[in-house]
Design goal:
heterodimer; A: 275 residues; globular; B: 241 residues; alpha/beta; 6-stranded mixed sheet; 10 strands
């Protein structure tokens, strides 16, 4: 009952949020343009071509940004407005509260993705596109996976913030680090890593960032890691093998579970800065 | 000391940097007033009473049994009316109370009758964002009184209410008292305290200035004509403001 009440309330709030409406329009436009016009002058190679790389980057740039802002600001706003304090004074399970918040955000983003991909793919198939249905569905699946991995983190950001501004700063800071800075740090470090440690370094670097997890998963699913090149053959073989895949799955689960548990722990311990 | 009417007892409770150790008991069917200047520690004390914050020291007893204020079982014994609150603006007054009714896990609420009790029948299907401040405060009161619990905790319940509803609020609190409910509320109005409270806890700069029954305070007013003047002189004598 508690879960249902919070889930429905939060889902309504998310769906009526103007940010999300604008995001869905933007996302639909971007996805449709790539499907309609991105195929021009491309070879018929069905692997990881420029179009797919660009579409992947659009996903990996836009989705985390909107997720972080939506999730963290919604929780911080409830704190600032006193609603969270009141809700927490009811005899509810704090764990249910955290799970309901994560799932409502996930569901709202899922609905937006369905709408955006639905419109984009309909347009694409009516007017003709170079992207295959398989690739499109892969992107859809990976986008959902990305939402699942990042939603708990974005709720945690809100739980740790005192104000909406703080949560916005945390969301943008987190996004900048994970999406932009991480790659530069990664590329800087890779130049000093010895070849013997390369496989371990790459595995840790990919597992430590949910966005890189999705990027690598996309490359592996779409063209079995061919585009990673021969220099990363050992890493590609490892990551596509049983043990490597297991490591990626375990880290993906950890990216969901750990932020959720931390949010619960902060709320339970009265460390949420609610006044 | 507790007696068989004591339902909640705080013993040497403190919250770091907010308020010094203090003790008091809430008895069945009594009204406890919490007063003090801005930043005196009233809202912080409420944060401990409602389980938002774990106290830095001291113990809390519920019906003479020591309790943890962060357990959900503790939260089944009170209902809270916060000072500042913005309800979800996409909901109507009726939907808002339905939402809180689900959170309370009590299924027997008559949402319409409680809305009528606080004078919101005609506007119950309006979005809360269109409510005036006073109407939102009455909705806040409704979500608090809707739940059947032994203790109601109210942070500045008369804030934003017009004279009619401020008076009506006093009557409502007395009605609850008659029904055997206990109330702890914070206020800046010492005349309200004189009118309805049985006990007064006055905090000043995080320290207890007054902690005694209002009846006893009345006897010790001396040359002061009312509680407000008495407290004013008490604070002045202590060099505070």
């Amino acid at each position: 009952m508690t879960f249902q009440a919070i889930f429905h309330n939060d889902l309504k709030q998310f769906i009526r949020n103007r940010w999300l409406v604008w995001f869905s329009v933007l996302f639909t436009l971007v996805a449709t343009s790539f499907l309609l016009f991105g195929g021009a002058n491309q070879e018929t190679y069905d692997g990881f071509n420029t179009n797919i790389a660009v579409l992947l980057n659009v996903n990996l740039f836009l989705l985390p940004l909107v997720l972080f802002i939506m999730g963290s600001v919604s929780v911080a706003a409830e704190k600032e407005e006193g609603l969270l304090t009141l809700v927490l004074s009811y005899p509810i399970s704090y764990f249910e509260l955290v799970v309901a918040k994560i799932l409502s955000l996930t569901t709202a983003m899922f609905l937006i993705l369905c709408l955006s991909y639905g419109i984009a793919s309909t347009g694409g198939f009516i007017f003709g596109t170079e992207l295959s249905l398989h690739t499109l569905l892969t992107f859809f699946f990976l986008s959902i996976l990305l939402i699942l991995l990042l939603a708990p983190l974005s709720i945690l950001m809100g739980v740790c913030s005192r104000t909406k501004f703080q949560s916005m700063a945390l969301a943008l800071g987190g996004w900048t680090f994970l999406v932009l800075l991480y790659e530069f740090i990664f590329m800087g470090l890779i130049t000093v890593v010895t070849p013997q440690l390369l496989k371990l370094f790459l595995t840790v670097a990919v597992a430590a960032n949910p966005i890189e997890l999705i990027r690598v998963a996309a490359i592996i699913i779409i063209d079995e890691g061919v585009s990673l090149g021969p220099s990363l053959y050992e890493f590609t073989s490892f990551i596509t093998g049983g043990f490597g895949s297991l490591i990626l799955i375990v880290f993906s689960v950890l990216w969901i579970v750990v932020p959720a548990l931390l949010s619960y722990w902060f709320i339970r311990g009265g460390k949420t800065h609610v006044e | 000391m507790s007696n068989d009417r004591t339902i909640l007892r705080l013993q040497e409770i403190s919250l770091e940097r907010r308020f010094q150790p203090l003790s008091f008991s809430i008895e069945k069917g009594s009204i406890y007033a919490l007063c003090g200047g801005n930043g005196a520690g009233k809202t912080s004390l409420f944060s401990v009473l409602t389980g938002m914050n774990r106290p830095s020291s001291g113990r809390i007893y519920k019906n003479d049994d020591e309790t943890n204020n962060q357990h959900s079982s503790y939260r089944r014994h009170f209902s809270y009316m916060p000072d500042q609150l913005a309800f979800p603006n996409h909901l109507t007054g009726f939907e808002t109370l339905k939402f809180f009714s689900m959170l309370s896990q009590q299924q027997n609420h008559n949402v319409k009758s409680i809305l009528s009790y606080v004078g919101l029948t005609e506007s119950m299907h309006q979005k809360v964002k269109h409510y005036s401040k006073g109407m939102q405060q009455r909705l806040n009161l409704a979500q608090c009184l809707m739940v059947d619990v032994p203790i109601y905790m109210m942070d500045e319940p008369t804030n934003g209410l017009d004279p009619y509803w401020a008076h009506r609020m006093k009557e409502m609190l007395l009605e609850q008292k008659e029904q055997g409910k206990s109330i702890i509320f914070s206020t800046h109005s010492l005349s309200l305290v004189e009118d309805i409270a049985d006990d007064l806890l006055f905090l000043q700069g995080g320290e207890v200035l007054i902690n005694q029954p209002v009846a006893e305070l009345r006897k010790s007013l001396g040359e002061h004509k009312d509680l407000s003047t008495y407290v004013y002189h008490l604070i002045s004598d202590k060099g505070g403001k």
